[in-house]
Structure formats: C-alpha cells, structure tokens
Design brief:
The chain has 763 residues and is mainly alpha-helical. The chain is built from 42 helices and no strands. This is Pentatricopeptide repeat-containing protein At3g61520, mitochondrial-like.
C-alpha cells in the first residue's frame, strides 16, 4: 500500500466502547513493555516536545520540510520515546501518518535506532483507536497493519498487543495470527502468546489454540505458561469446550498436570469448581488423582477444595477415602472448618450411621485426642437432629435441640422444628408433633409449607384426614398456601378412602390456585376414579396428564383397562391398549391377566387364546391368576371337564401351584354339579399341598353337603373349620341355621358356634 493511499482511506475513527476506551488503550500500550529492549534516554525535553507538536499542528504538512524548527529537530535523531509522545499528541490518524512519512523521509538516524518507526506507528494505532467517527475500527487497523508490513515498519510489542486484542474481539482470528507472526521472535513473551491463545479459544478455533498451548507447555519452551495462561484455558474449557467439543475428564487432568510441571498451579476457586464438576460427573477417582498430583508437584490445596472432594466421596459413600482425606488434611496442616465436618456428618446421617456422626461431632469440641476445635453452626445441628429423627431417635434429637440452644446460643429455626415434627410423625406420635408445632409458633418461628406437608402426611397416614383438612384450612387463613405436595397428600388420602368427590374438588382447587399437579398426583386420581368406576372422569384426568407432559405408567394403564373391562367398554379398551403401545409402555402380567379374565367371563375363548399367545411372545408365562381366570370361565360356561383339565395341567406340567382361589372355584362348581365327593377330595388335596382353606371353601362344601343331607360329613368339616381357626361368616351361619335345626341338630350348631368339637357323637 502506498502512503498516499493509506492517507486517503483513513477517515476519522469512532471511539470504542468502554472496553476499548482511551484509558484502556493507554493501559495496554501507553507504556513501553518491560520486556522490550532498553532504549537510549530521551534527548528531547518535554518543552521541546510540546513546541514541536505545536508546529506540526499549526503548519500544513506540505510545508514541514521547509520549517527550520522541524529540520533542526530531525538533525539530531529524536529518541523513540519522544517520537511516541509527539505522535500521540497530533490529534488524528491522518496527521500521524503524515508525520511518519516526514520523519521516515528526512531522518538520517533510522539505522541507529530502528525502534523509532515502531513507536511512531504504535502511536498512530492508538490514535486510530481513539478517533470518534470511524465506523469500522478493526478493518482500519488491519489496513494500518498491512501498511506497516508493506513499509517494513517493525511492530513494537505494545502495538502487536493492541492489534491482536482488537482483532480477537472482532473474531478476526487470521488477522490476529498474522500480527503475531509479524512480531520479532525475540520480542515475543508469555503475555503476548496468552493474548493470541485467548483470541483463538474465544473465537472458537480450538484446535489452533491448543497447538499454541502445546508449544507453551513443552519443557524447553521459550514462552512458558503462567497463571494467566491457565485462567484462559480453564475459562475456555468451562464455557465452550465442554459444550461444543467435549474433552474427557482424563484429557483435562493430563493437561493440568502439564501446567503443574511448569510450576503453575490451580487457585482455590478453580480447583474447587473442577473437583465439584468431576465428582458430579462420577469421576471421583480422577478428582482424587488430580488433587494428589498437584500436592506431589509442589502445589498447595485449601480446605474448600478438600471439602469439594469430600462431598463427592460422600455421595459415593466412600467413607474409607473420606477418612484418608481427613488425615491428609491434618498432615498437611490444612485446618478443617465447619463445612468440612458438616459434609462428613451429613453423609454419615444419610447412610443412617448416626452414631458415627455423633462421634465426629464430639471431635469438633477439641476434647478428643485427635479433635479439632471448630464451633458447630446451626446447619450442622439441624443435620444431626434430622439424622437422629430418621433412625427413630427423635427424643435424642429433641435433647440435641435443647443443647444447641443452651450451649451455643442457636435458637431453633423452621428447619429444626420440621426435622423433629417429621420424626415424631413417622413414629406415629402425632400429638407430640402437634405440641412441637404449637411451641414453634409460640417461639416466633414461622412454619412453612414443608411443616404443613409433614403434619398433613402424618395425620392422613393415621386416618385423621378431617383433622388434616382442618389444619390446612387454618394455615390458609394465615396466608400459608399449599403446594403440589400438599394437595397430593390430601387427594391421595381421599382416594384411598373412596371419597372421590372430595378428591376432585381439591384437584380443581389446586389448579385454580396455580399449583401444577405432578405425575404421582395424576396417577393417584386415575387409580381412585377407576376404583370408583368413574371411567369418564378417569379418562379425562389421563388426557390432562398427557397434555401436561406426563406419560402414564403401566400401573395407570392397567387401572384404566381394568375399569373399562368392568364397564364392558371393549372399544375403549382397545384404544387404551393402542395408546399404551404408542407411548412405549409394554403390557405386563397384570395387563394380560385383566384381558384374559374379561374375555374368559364373556366366554370368548378364541380371544383368550390370542391374548395368551401374545402374552407368551412378550416373555410372560401364565401364572396362577391366568389359570384361575380360565378355570373360572370354563366353570361358568358349564365345561367342568375342561376346567379340571387346566387344573391338572397346572399341578403337573406348568409347575404353577394352585392357590385357595382356584380350589374354591372348583370346589364350588363341583358341589353345584352334585360331585361332593370330588369336592371333598380337593379339600384333602389342599391340606396335603399346604394350601389353607378359607371361609369360602367351607361355605361351598356346606352347600353341597346340605343338598345331599350328608350331615355326618358336615360335622367333620365343621370340626376342621374350628381346628383351622377359620371363623364362620354370615353365609356360613345362614346355610347351617337353615339346615341343622330342621333335622334336630340345634345343639351341634350351638357347640360349633361356641368353638367346640361336634363330630364325636352321631346325628
């Protein structure tokens, strides 16, 4: 580029934002870099500099060659510092370029000090950064750079720094690299390489950036890394590479060890962040190795970094290495703080090792031989109280709360009371929980929604749903609104007692109050509505759950299919099965047994066989429920032979032992078919196979024996029933009172009711 062309293209440049303000420019390049070659002392006084600047500003540049003061000024070559000061004060890039040409053309001492042009050009760059009307500063600076390169004007290190920084912010990565290459290799230092590295990594050129880094990390590197290098690389790792180009934890650790080998170590903030990140990614082993690599190579580790690793080990329940780490802290004279002990105690309590947690707590008092005097805080007390309550030691938790208040002056807060109230609720001591709740309010501790939920859950589990609703209403009046958990507890409780109307009222209230139901609540409602046979409402809630983004699980689908089968809505059953399949939920044993029971009851045995085939194809073998449904269906259809065939197949071929339900179905059918002897034979088989008869078994036999008027056998069965401690129900008494008194056996009936043997005497 010709100088005249350069002048023509340079219009006034706009001022930069704060990051590139005049103060920022002076900070970057206003002073000579300390690594630059030492310059000769200035030969021009400040007054002389001011005079020369005045002449340059008031005289047309075409007349500078004829100005005696300027000629005299150049007669003795000015120092680079003087030229830097003069060019800075000219006020525009254009005048700076004119001065550079004038100086280059007329000075005879350039060969003596080549830095003169470098510092003059540096001042021109600074002025270009300050000009207020230029629209595209980076582009104009690149034009200036090209002009200097063509004119073989060497760059000062500050000029190179200014250009690399500006190009880097503009994402002009190739231009930044060009500037770096143009810089004299002897002038390159760690700071300028850091700047190039930062530009490349921020600009997304990760591969090139890491090539630069690799050269810095070599053992014989002329520009070794420093703390700034590490900060640049870690910032890139944290903000960019872990998102766009994921480096493995192993690669990151290898990179950091190379820094350690150069004596550059992680500060406490970065080390804590990295260890936390590694541990949460399941890489506690690598975090452990990195900490010990840093110690081995001479770095120091603070308590917060140890705490981060302790937390990770605690989540993995690796108490052995937690103890090793605590011992290392003592050896390295790193004093554990209250957070250190809090982490250890918290994880011990989560694993229900509360006795060990209490031992650690005692060491904090400094009384133990290996103890450390650290004052526990309220958080640590709450952790221990919660741990004690979770293992059923709520009384000890209460005593610890009193100790916290008396010995350390910490008043219990909401968390403290919540832990204790929860402990007593889980122990079934709801009255004690309510007393603590009253004490909490008297002491000015404000209950929160967690307090409310704990108490509601405790009350509802004990069947005190009405009391729970009263408490909820009281808290609402005081401004404490329930959340999704609150409504879930209440709605689930009302569903469990089949009060579906109240559950639906609460559900509507919940949505009106802006609380979003969760998957658990939708499931509870669907199950309750299906149990109450309100299938239209159940389907509506299922649709709302899907609209809210919650997929139904197999339990909900089974409830819907079962409810629709009971309502004989087979078309909707097929649609539900289709929805289930499209949602990626596979039918299970319960699903298939429900369908088999339905089709069996309807006598649709072709459909039964089709469902059983698919059931087997999906890897589910028929179980006792499946066979029971089939046997019941054939019995209802009057096909007793087929029912018995399936029963015999159960016992021999499929290795599925019949249960009392299957025996009862067959015994009842046999008795109704006047095959009482076969029914009694099945009763004997039940005893042989260890299947306990129940009241339904005996009732079916009593009906058959009554039809035969087989009273002696009835007395034997009555004695068996008494011997097996199987209490008669109203059906038993109805059968026997309609039969025995009519044949004069009222006393036998009375003895049976009173639990005495009745078969010793004849009828």
């Amino acid at each position: 580029m010709k100088l005249a062309a350069a002048r023509k293209s340079f219009l006034p440049l706009p001022s930069l934002p704060k990051s590139g303000s005049i103060a920022g420019v002076r900070h970057l390049s206003g002073e000579l870099d300390v690594t630059h070659k030492p310059l000769p002392p200035p030969t021009t006084t400040s007054a002389a500099v001011t005079e020369i600047v005045s002449v340059l500003k008031t005289t047309d540049h075409n007349d500078w060659n004829s100005n005696s003061k300027l000629v005299e000024f150049l007669h003795t070559p000015p120092s680079p510092t003087s030229l830097l000061k003069i060019t800075r004060q000219l006020g525009s890039t254009e005048k700076g370029l004119h001065f550079l040409e004038f100086f280059k053309t007329n000075s005879s001492g350039l060969s003596a000090n080549p830095s003169s042009l470098s510092f003059t050009f540096q001042a021109i760059l600074e002025q270009a950064m300050r000009d207020e009307q230029e629209a595209d500063v980076p582009s104009k600076l690149f034009e200036l750079f090209c002009f200097a390169k063509e004119g073989k004007i060497p760059l000062s290190i500050n000029a190179a720094t200014l250009l690399i920084r500006c190009f880097g912010r503009a994402k002009m990565l190739e231009e930044s690299v060009s500037v770096y290459k143009e810089l004299d290799p002897d002038s390159r230092n760690t700071n300028v390489v850091n700047l190039l590295l930062d530009c490349l990594l921020r600009g997304g050129n990760i591969d090139r950036g890491f090539k630069v880094l690799d050269k810095m990390l070599k053992r014989d590197s002329g520009v070794p890394p420093n703390k700034s290098t590490m900060d640049i690389v870690l910032s890139a790792l944290w903000k960019r590479i872990w998102v766009e180009r994921r480096m493995s934890v192993e690669e990151i650790c290898e990179l950091l060890v190379r820094f350690f080998e150069h004596g550059v170590f992680l500060d406490d903030v970065w080390f804590t962040k990295l260890i936390t990140k590694f541990c949460r990614s399941g890489k506690c082993d690598k975090a452990w190795d990195l900490l010990h690599d840093m110690l081995r190579l001479g770095g120091g580790v603070e308590a917060s970094s140890y705490n981060a690793l302790l937390s990770g080990l605690g989540r993995e329940r690796d108490f052995q290495r937690m103890n090793l780490l605590m011992n290392e802290m003592k050896e390295k004279e790193v004093k554990p703080n209250v957070v250190t002990f809090g982490i250890l105690i918290n994880h011990l309590c989560k694993c229900y090792r509360v006795d060990e947690a209490l031992q650690v707590f005692e060491k904090m008092g400094g009384s133990e031989p290996d103890g450390v005097l650290v004052k526990p805080d309220r958080v640590l007390y709450n952790t221990l109280i919660d741990g004690l309550c979770k293992v059923g030691k709520q009384e000890e938790g209460f005593k610890l709360m009193e100790k916290m208040r008396m010995e350390n002056g910490y008043e219990p807060n909401t968390v403290t009371y919540n832990c204790l109230i929860d402990g007593f609720c889980k122990a079934g001591e709801i009255e004690t929980s309510l007393e603590l709740f009253d004490q909490m309010k008297k002491n000015g501790v404000v209950p929160n929604v967690i307090t409310l939920n704990i108490l509601l859950n405790g009350m509802c589990k004990l069947g005190r749903v009405s009391s729970g609703m009263g408490l909820f209403a009281e808290m609402q009046e005081k401004g404490l609104k329930g959340n999704a958990v609150t409504y879930t507890i209440l709605i689930t409780s009302f569903c469990s007692v089949n009060n579906i109307d109240r559950a639906m009222t609460l559900f509507n209230e919940m949505t009106e109050n802006g609380c979003s139901p969760d998957a658990k609540l939708y499931c509870s409602l669907i199950l309750g509505l299906c149990q109450a046979r309100r299938m239209d409402d159940a389907s509506c809630i299922a649709s709302k759950a899907k609209e809210a983004g919650f997929g139904l699980d197999v339990i909900c689908y089974n409830a819907l299919i079962g409810g629709l089968c009971r309502k004989n809505k087979i078309d909707e059953v097929h649609q539900t099965l289709k929805d289930m399949e499209e949602s990626g939920i596979k039918p299970d044993h319960y699903t298939y047994n429900t369908l088999i029971s339905y089709f069996s009851e309807k006598g649709q045995f072709t459909a039964v066989r089709r469902v059983m085939k698919r059931m087997k194809d999906d890897g589910y073998l028929p179980n006792v429920v499946t066979y029971g449904a089939l046997i019941h269906a054939y019995c209802l259809a009057g096909n007793l032979d087929e029912a018995m065939k399936i029963f015999q197949n159960m016992s021999s071929a499929t290795n599925v032992p019949p249960n009392a339900v299957v025996y009862n179905i067959l015994i009842d059918t046999l008795c109704k078919s006047d095959k009482v002897e076969d029914a009694i034979s099945l009763l004997d088989e039940m005893k042989d196979k260890g299947v306990r008869p129940n009241t339904k078994t005996y009732n079916a036999l009593f009906k058959g024996l009554r039809e035969r008027n087989w009273v002696e056998k009835a007395f034997e069965i009555m004695d068996q029933m008494t011997e097996n401690a199987c209490n008669p129900d109203y059906i038993t008494m109805e059968i026997l009172t309609q039969w025995l008194p009519t044949i004069g056996e009222t006393e036998k009936l009375r003895s049976f009711v009173e639990g005495y043997e009745v078969s010793t005497s004849t009828a």
